[in-house]
Amino acid sequence: MAIDDHTVEYVAKLSRLELTREERELFREQLSRILEYFSKLNELDTTGIPPTSHVIPMRNVFREDVVTPSLEREVVLDEAPDQEEGYFKVPRVFEE
Amino acid sequence: MRENATTKVQDEFEIVIGLEIHVQLLTASKMFCGCSTRFGAPPNTQVCPVCLGLPGSLPVINRKAVELGLRTALALNCTIHPQSQFHRKNYYYPDLPKNYQISQYQYKDHPPLASDGHLTFEFDGQARTVRIRRVHLEEDTGKLVHVERDGTVLYSLVDYNRSGVPLMEIVTEPDLRSPEEAREFLSRLRTLLQYLEVSSGRMEEGTLRCDANVSLRRRGEPLGIRTEVKNMNSLRAVEKALSFEVARQREILQAGGEVVQETRHWDERREVTFGSREKEEAQDYRYFPEPDLVPMVLDPAWIEEIRRTLPELPEERRRRYVEQYALSPHDAALLVENKAMADFFEATIKLFPQPKTVCNWLLGDVTGYANTHGMEFTDLPLTPEKLAEMLKLMEDGTISIRLAKEILEEMLATGKDASSIVAEKGLVQIRDEDALRAIVEEVIAENPNPVRDYRAGKEKALTFLVGQVMRKTSGRANPDLVNRLLKERLHG
Amino acid sequence: MADQITDLSAVELRERLVRGDISAQEVTEAFLQRIHALDPRLHAFLYVDTEGAIAQARQVDEQVLTGARRSGRELPPLAGIPVAVKDNICTKGIPTTCASRILEGWRPPYDATVVERLRRAGAIILGKTNLDEFAMGSSTENSGFGPTRNPWDLTRVPGGSSGGSAAAVAAGMAPLALGSDTGGSIRQPAALCGIVGLKPTYGRVSRYGLVAFASSLDQIGPMARTVTDCAILLNVIAGNDPRDSTSANLPCPDFTRALQVEVRGLRIGIPRECFVEGLQPEVREAVLQAARLFSDLGAVCEEISLPHLDYALPTYYLIAPAEASSNLARYDGVQYGYRAKAGDLYTMYARTRREGFGAEVKRRIMLGTYALSAGYYEAFYLKALQVRTLIKQDFDVAFQDHDLILMPTSPTVAFPLGEKVTDPLQMYLNDIFTIPVSLAGLPGISVPCGFANGLPIGLQLVGRPFDEETVLRAAFTFEQHTEYWKARPVTSDTVTRDKVKE
Predict the structure, then answer these.
(1) Is the Cβ pair A92, B156 closer than 8 Å?
(2) What share of residues in chain A are helix, strand, coil (percent, to 5)?
(3) Taking CA atoms, which of B154, B290, B375, B380 is between 20 and 30 Å from C161?
(4) How are beta strands C300-304 and C267-271 bridged, if at all?
(5) Do A37 and C314 touch (CB under 8 A)?
(6) CATH 1.10.10.410 residue spans of chain B
(7) Is residue C293 part of a domain?
(8) How many other C-beta atoms are found inside a 10 Å radius of the C-beta of residue C26?
(9) Could you tell me the CATH number of the domain that includes residue C118?
(10) Residues of C annotated catalytic, as ranges
(11) Which of C226, C209, C192 is nearest to C92 (CA)?
(12) How far apart are the CA of C464 and the nearest CA of chain B, in angstroms?
């Protein structure tokens, strides 16, 4: 399963990862190799096999609708790279 | 038949509209954590590790939110899926703290909470059925504030109070055929949600939000290219925005052009829709089952319990009002549309069992007062007990209709009850025949001409004379009594 | 005195603390001293909470130990016992970085459930241990703050991703440590450092406050020098937590009651698929010798087959990165941690993540994003979930006739630093025996079972879901009949006991 530059670029964009040209090269080569190895799974016929997304069968875990204390705002904003008047501050959303 | 722009378009094109409605659920705490859902708190004060998506935090489903979803699904005649689960919808945006939204996605053996329902309502004198494609649960995002200078966004601010508030998404099939019908459907749905006590349904506050898919097609042809219209913040806006969009698409199609598939925003001020400048990057949400939440397997007994405790729904109630209380279909519909008023109506007729009278007062003077003062019905200081007391005073003749109207206005303005207003202002009707006879004598003496006219057979003159008596008594005289006394005197 | 203290197990420390021979402060200071002496060479810790630990110890001395000694009341299980915590477990007010630049300096506003339980049990938190960034790796070389070294040979890796916790325990810098295991991250470093490490059944220990790598696989577990110490630590951290929907609502036994020298009649399966090329001969020999010992002690050892074992690696490396790509999306520079300078949001995101994440993390995010993206979902992610079902079924079948499965923990002993960093696939192959167990959510322990060229070998024992008791009983029995666990690495040159003969 070879991956082309376009796919690497697309996946990097979906992942919000800026890549250097070297990284792009390296990832293209490594991911291709890894996926080729993974194509081993195609040896198995899995028709009709249910997927396992939770390995231990559990169901119906709920909480009751009860309000519990929130965090202090100062504690929350203390960690923020940038803040203003009780809000988290971020660079402008480019497209808008 | 109504005659307007869209009905004309229907001659050439068929309008196809589907709605996607997001409803904030009336829970005390958020979808996956215990933070309060209260509206209007200072920014970032109703947050915790879970709704901030801090590393290491984990969600736990609010049982009440599921119950409200099920209540809605049952009322919309949906198939409830015995097993469903949550998924992650992955995309980056600063109002989404984890950069994925916990939602439900239909994929093979992972159905949403419910699907394949319908809502039937009357529109333009016809019964219309709109199919409901799906009902599912998800979490709301935070709120972004864009800080601008000279029309350019400089930076944005994020408040996560709304992050994690329970949302229910209701998606219809594209069964709506005009903007008016879409508005009517949404209005009926909103009333239904209010009856179910699932949502406050306030579009202006954003507790009910609606996006629409709109397309036109020539009759008999496959579906046309659609646009998605967003940012409609009232029922009126929905109708206006859709009318605008229909007209815009029609113009393009008539000129032989092609509609571009895109998201368009409604500009309330300019009354136009405009295409977003966002690049229409192919959406690749990479849905997968949320590993942090285990599947929900809904116990049929639980669903039965919810079905059993469903309140009377608006359509049933409307029918009952016509059959049981002999209200006109029009009045019944108006009354039922406002759940608070309909509940008020029922409480009042228990104390004053004359449904028509109570209905007339509620839809007439009470609604009129609320409208002129820009108030919601629920804001009025009126109780069923107070209204019933006033109506009884009127019925037993203590006050006249005219007085009753004045007293009601005073009641609505001050919150006082009718009897104390009557006592304070000395408004009790004069029913002492001797006292009234003296006034009748005065009026006859002062008005020789009308007296002559009446005696000459002009019935109308009597009305004038009654009016004069009423004037002298500041309206406190019992009009029936005055009538009788005048007739006795003039005929005698 | 200090040297003797750091050589004691948690059980021995507790005896002395109860008797009043030593104080919690003395114990804590002894371990802190050893950390200061050894850690510059080993780099097992990312943060040592010297002041906090001493303050905590004083509090335990004054409020817990003195009172309990006077009144004869039962002491909380870990009163005055120091514990090292892997740095992907949230500690309120104490930096939690996951060994990533992107979280440098982050101080969580809350404690993980396991940390709350440690504190309630009277444990002293010494500090936070090194790991592969976000627990992605098998050598601790992927740490954003430099690798940890193996106390048995400073030129070799300690395994990973809980390499810091394993090295800290092996070198006597902490009697107990918490690790986390997604595909072998407790068991493999335990094996490579010659200690005991237990991955409990998925759902046995709350994940609340464990920074997620792959949510359907992650599990916190105990690491110690003895099976008994592991059981004691497991007792404290295990149990249902309403804040973790995937934590099992099952009663928790007292795991120390399982510690009996008794394996007669125990049916042990040995998967033939484990003994293939790539398995170091000394490891093979040590594991088979362990099986012979169990047979001698009355257990029934039989060859079994796990036919899909070979598919576990690709399955795991699709599922775990897919979940990781989503779990790690939140590191975007908005709320906490590192933010790169940029004029618009997209650039801020992309640059923050480029500068904040290391190569392996990026590789797995890319791999996982690809596996989930439109058009590939069915071929990769869904396919992997289906094969996961087949792997789990293999174990279900095996456990119909067997109580336990015995296999190597790792195909080789500790390898030299730098040997595999440039070849991700080679690195991934380290986990071929631990990954299937993780995919099936089963409990697994690694106990020392021999040495090759002076480097420890680990034996893996795997049980049925929620049957940690059988796993602990077998491990304890093995430990009581062997001496490997008594050996100490030469790095801890202050330790008096000799290395056990190979």
Answers:
(1) yes
(2) 40, 10, 50
(3) B290
(4) parallel
(5) yes
(6) 433-491
(7) no
(8) 17
(9) 3.90.1300.10
(10) 86, 161, 185
(11) C209
(12) 21
Q: Which residues of chain B does A64 touch, with a Cβ-Cβ cutoff of 8 Å?
A: 62-64
Nearest residue to C462 via CA among C409, C401, C391, C393? C409
Other beta carbons within 10 angstroms of residue B1's beta carbon come to: 5
Q: Is residue A90 part of a domain?
A: no
CB contact under 8 Å between C245 and B59, yes or no, is: yes
Of A73, A91, A95, the CB nearest to B44: A73
Smallest Cβ–Cβ distance between B60 and the set A61, A69, A76 belongs to: A61
> Which chain B residues have a beta carbon less than 8 Å from that of C330?
53, 55, 97-99
Chain-chain contact of B59 with C373 (C-beta, under 8 angstroms): no
Chains contacting A (3 or more CB pairs within 8 Å): B, C
Chain C residues with CB-CB distance to B56 below 8 A: 89-90, 96, 108, 110, 112, 208-212
Q: Quote the strand ranges of C332-443, DSSP E.
A: 404-408
Looking at 3.40.50.300, 2.40.10.270, 1.10.10.410, 1.10.4030.10, the CATH number of the domain B433-491 comes to 1.10.10.410
Q: What is the mean pLDDT of chain B?
A: 90
Query: What SS3 state is found at B15?
Result: strand
User: CA nearest B91 in C: which residue?
Assistant: C329
pLDDT at B468: 86
Question: How far does Cα C21 stand from its chain's mean position?
Answer: 31
Tokens coding C183: 């595909």
Instruction: Read off the pLDDT of residues C60-84 as tens digits, 9 standing for 90 and up.
Output: 999 888 888 788 788 899 999 999 9
Distance CA C497, CA B146 (A): 67
The pair of structure tokens assigned to C370 is 């690809």
Tens of pLDDT along C158-168?
A: 999 999 999 99
Tell which of C201, C370, C439 to mutate to test the A interface (max A CBs under 10 Å): C370
What is the mean pLDDT for each group of 10 consecutive residues in chain A (96 residues)? 86 94 92 90 94 92 98 95 96 71
ipTM of model: 0.96
pLDDT tens column, B5-61 = 444 544 689 999 999 999 999 999 999 999 999 988 999 999 999 999 999 999 999
Dihedral over alpha carbons C127, C133, C137, C138 (to 10 degrees): -20
Exposure of C327 in the CB half-sphere (CA atoms within 13 A): 29
Specify the pTM: 0.90
CB atoms C245 and B288 under 8 Å? no
Beta-carbon separation of C335 and B52 below 8 A: yes
Structure tokens at B319: 């029918």
Find out whether B225 and B215 touch, Cβ atoms under 8 Å. Answer: yes
Rounded CA separation C436/C315 (Å): 9
Whether A76 and B52 lie within 8 Å, measured CB to CB: yes
Which chain A residues are within 8 Å of B46, Cβ to Cβ?
70
Q: How many domains is chain A built from?
A: 1
Q: How many CB pairs under 8 A join A and C?
A: 163
Q: How confident is the model at residue C242 (pLDDT cuts 50, 70, 90)?
A: very high
CA proximity to A6, closest of C471, C370, B179 = C370
A vs B: CB pairs below 8 A: 128
